[in-house]
Amino acid sequence: MSRKIRLGVLGIGGVGGYFGSMLAQKYADSNEVEVVFITKESTAAIIKNNGLKLFTSDTESLIYPKFVIGEPSEVGTLDYLICSVKSYDLEASLKTVKNSISKETVILPLLNGVNARERILKIYPFAQVLDGCVYIVAKLIATATVQVTGAMKSLYFGSDNVSDLRLSELAAILNAEGIESHLSKNIKQLIWEKFVFVSPLASLTSYLNLPIGPILENDDYKNILKQLVIEVADIAEANDILLPNIVEVTMTKIAAMPYNATSSMHNDFLKKGRTEFEALTEFVIVSGLRLGIPTPGYDQIMSSYSSWKLHYLL
User: Fold this and answer.
1) Partner residues linked to 7 by β-bridges
2) Beta carbons within 10 angstroms of residue 160's beta carbon
3) How many Cα atoms are found within 13 Å in the side-chain-facing hemisphere of 50?
4) Parallel, antiparallel, or unpaired for β 131-142 and 145-158?
5) pLDDT in tens, 271-300
6) 183, 189, 192, 198 alpha-carbon torsion, rounded to 10°
7) Per-residue pLDDT tens over the stretch 102-133
8) What are the residues facing 182 on neighbouring strands?
9) Parallel, antiparallel, or unpaired for β 60-63 and 52-55?
10) Helix, strand, or coil here: 196?
11) Backbone CA torsion sign across 190, 1, 26, 83
12) How many Cβ atoms from other residues are within 10 Å of residue 291's Cβ?
């Protein structure tokens, strides 16, 4: 790396807070890579003054990133941007850093859903946008306080149209302690494989207001869950995404979850906050209508959406 590379992390929640912290620690004294946290001014002030608290299963850390910026106009041009905001904040958040995005900027989205790349290209058609996904159980338990549970801390990315040179350079940057990073040749399959797992889980735990254990104990609920998995798998296949035995694989993954485990969308509903319902539930129905794929399970959830959303608000 002959030049100083600037890598921004937009969205310092569970995902951005964890992976950003690992990178900030690795490159704290580097003359080659500069890691920039980009967040709200109030959050930036807390991180600057008090650090970012990171709790894992066996460690407690306090990280002071070298560069934390709360005013987007001060970010400057970026070589790479990791975008780890919630799916409902994607467009609005990216537009705040428009002065930092050039045709040389490589953007890596790490958020729920399967169409982040297409959404980003509508805003910045000149940018180089990757596909990416993560497997990590991480959440923001307070401002600038991230909790990570379990051993999964994996990051996957790839592209069919970004140069091998840039992909290799990013792979080298992401090679930090605490990050299991993979440059994947089949990234779209990996993203859809995760979506077939996350979308039914998020939709049904939120709809029933139950963690996974009671759902699996109830035959009717378990059948609904499997129906949702089948419907997403059908949509993946219609998009030419080949996922052998994905229904059985996904149901096995879900069965292995802890009894009281639930989805981040369910947690967001419980907190009466904004949710990723549009990206994780509604997207399946819209895709089904566009492709001519029946989605009766998701249709039932959508038809009852107003009533069960009201339940959370009362």
Assistant:
1) 35, 80
2) 9
3) 11
4) antiparallel
5) 888 999 999 999 999 999 999 999 999 999
6) -60
7) 999 999 999 999 999 999 999 999 999 999 99
8) 156
9) antiparallel
10) helix
11) negative
12) 13
